[in-house]
Amino acid sequence: MSRAAIAGLLLAAGLAGGHAAAAGASPVPERGALAAPAEPLRAALRDGLRRALGRLSEELPGVSGFMVRDLTSGETFETNADLLFPVASVIKLPVFLEVLRQAEEGSIDLSRRRDIDPRARTTGGGVLQTWSPPLPQLSVGELAILMMDFSDNFATNLLIDQIGLERVNRRLRGWGFRETRLQRKIMDLEAARAGRENVSTPREMAALLEKLVRGEILDAESTRRAIAVMKANQNDPPRRTPIKQSLPEDVEVADKEGELEGVRCAAGIVFVPASGAPPTLPAAGSTRPFVLAVMTTYLKDDAAGAAFISAVSRAAFDYFTTVAMSSGYGRRLPP
Question: Alpha-carbon distance 279 to 199, whole Å?
Answer without folding.
Answer: 34
